[in-house]
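Homework-ish question, so no full write-ups if that breaks the rules, but can someone show me the predicted structure for this set?
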Amino acid sequence: MEFTLLWAALTAVTATWAGLRIWDDRLPARADDHLLAATLWGLVVGRLTAMIAQGVNPLTNPAEIIIVRGGVATPAAAATFVAVLVWSTRTLPGAVDAIAPAVLFGLAGWHAGCLWRGACLGTPSDLPWAWALPGSAVTRHPVELFAALGLALAAWLVASLPWRPWLRSGVALVMASGLRLVTDLVRPSLGDAVEWWYFVGVFVGLGAIAIGPLLPPPRQGEPT
Amino acid sequence: MVRRLLALTLVLAACGGASSQSLEGVADLPVTDVAGFEAHLEALERPAVVNVWASWCLPCRSEAPLLDEAYTAFGDRIEFIGVDVQDSQNDAKAFLAEYGLNGFDHYFDSDRSIPNHYLGFGTPITFFFAPGGELIHTHNGVIDERTLALQIDELLNLEG
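A: Not a homework solution, just the prediction itself:
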């Protein structure tokens, strides 16, 4: 059993926790709870989707749901995360915008967790900052650290944007998806296909930025 | 609510596959030991990815599609070998019929002597060997796409 994935997850949680404390302006009450619920739902739906895609029946093999290492369908998990977060904070004006920088910082922590997993490296490179795996002569892009740095900068940028409905969350979605798209160019993979859902993330984010101010404000006071 | 749950149950049940293939006439997996396996690796002119699996191993089912994908992409440049451990021949054949790993050369290692020899821990394990049988990397536990792709790329760069 290897526990490196748990260390990476712990790094992500710690970064999210730190992000909520660094950028705490207009945070809704119990922001941690909203994030935790959205994350857990994302993991469950992403894992179930991956199992079904792999031909594993969740009803006959229910124990496999907890084997997160066996694969989580990222598009399903990310879409569920966003949907649950938006739904659970639907009566709290600007809640998702306030949480967005912490989410980006948490994602940065997840990518930086590659240091525990020994999985930071991408395609071969001769650039001065390229690394090699232990015992290897092939130097490579530290792609996951690029992603971590980019997401941390994105968190800072998003936190400095003005308050306008869905602006911060829209920009956060565009930057998270866009960074995955860009860094994927130097990530090793088993196929050459570009992931379609990165583009979906970019377009949904742009849509949120464009139509956010036109949407009616949330009704306050309803139970969440 | 009950109707929704029933509908969800039916959808999930429909999505999962169930093996109904007959195993009659399917050949047993060849039995091997450490010496035989090492000799096989030494004779290889290409690098090899060796996956240690078992029919009772739940994570092995999860990673099987990924290994199949790797075989499809790199099977012409890399040997893909499966080592079934602590298993029965019938269970092993049923596992392969349901979960794939097609194209792999599979071996049967009932006492787990091969992964023990290479100091692998638990099941599944994925070993990465250079041409000639030198062990380059051991990944204990379920492997993910990035790690598999990175280690395969290392093997291909060794080759080059």
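Now go work out the reasoning yourself. Hint: DSSP finds eight helices and two strands in chain A.
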